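Lab notes, practical 5.
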Amino acid sequence: MNAKKWTIGFVSLILLCLLFIAGSNYFIDPYGYFSAQKGENYTMDEDDYLREQKAEHIKYHGGEYDAFLVGGSKAGAIRCDKLSDIDGYKYYNCWLLSGNFEDYYNYSKFIIETAHPKKILLHISTSEIAQFDREAKGDIYEIPAVMSGESKTSEVFKFLFKNLSVSYDTITSKEARYPVTQSGERNLQKYYNYYEGHRDRDEYYNYLMKEMVDPYLPRLIKGTKDKTSLVNSNMDYLKQIKKLCDKNDVELQVFLGSLFIGEMVGYEGNSFYSWLSQMVDVTGGLWCFNNYNDLVYNPFNYYNARHYYYEMGDLMIDRMSGKDSGHDDFGIYLTNDNIAEEIARRKKETGKIREYYKKTGTIPLSNYEDATNITKDLKYWDGNRKITMGIK
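Output from the prediction step:
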């Protein structure tokens, strides 16, 4: 074989390999990137590139909605049909895995420019105070080109030539998929499935809470780290969101979602209090469901240490819409007039938890049968007993 034939053969082999890689990634589509174009892929779940799907959905369908919920993964449990109780608007749930304030600004800007909404409802998870930049976690955490203005062609090539191991894992995986709803909510059925079969408090806590909660608890003694730089970054973007909404005559409503007591105590400290006070000052007032109340002590109201069930989301909406929820201590509307009093109360309650922890090495929790468990009738469980989060 002469050099020319050898070169042609080698180049042809390389091209065939590249074509095979690109074809496999396109048709298997392990990130859901290609099927998400035009925003009509409603089979994607939380492991796919939801940031792209949501951006494309807003681009092509944003005009079908009056308002948008923007927030991190906790916000995924807020039901859009329930949200209309607040103001009568039709909502789309634009929750993001590991959302941060920069994400919230980018999505708010994109929504306002693309869909021209009446309202942005911003859900704050409190975990935003722990970490600002999330893109380093992986490709599905990046702002997509359709929003950022970066090259769409480069983005397409990036996903065409991903490592084939991801496509292989996709076609060989036997794990069930739980697609998000068409209106954007997170699918929680795998968590409800586990809940249905594990109503013993210790077993439920040890599997779904312990690994994430226990590392927080020593902060009750050692204190929390200073987060001034993160607080400042968060506030810079919140101010930009507020300015953007005011300029475009879009209503902005901000609220802090509920936290399980085990995560909540991990944030209590001067940085958090400063962050909370500044958010109140920027917005003029907000609902805070990250507050001390009886419900946060019951682990069965949360599907893991950092996320609440649909029922808790419903209850937050009831409170914000002025309905009688039966839980008047759940959530507080904070203003510049009462924020100092609320911070003083939080410090006092945190001190009580600290003393309890010193004596017992743990935190006080309610059990399944306690009246504070608002999820035990499994209102939103679909009855699927076959899948229990991979646990045999």
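Observations recorded by the TA: The first helix runs from residue 3 to 28. Residues 386-392 have pLDDT under 50 and may be disordered.
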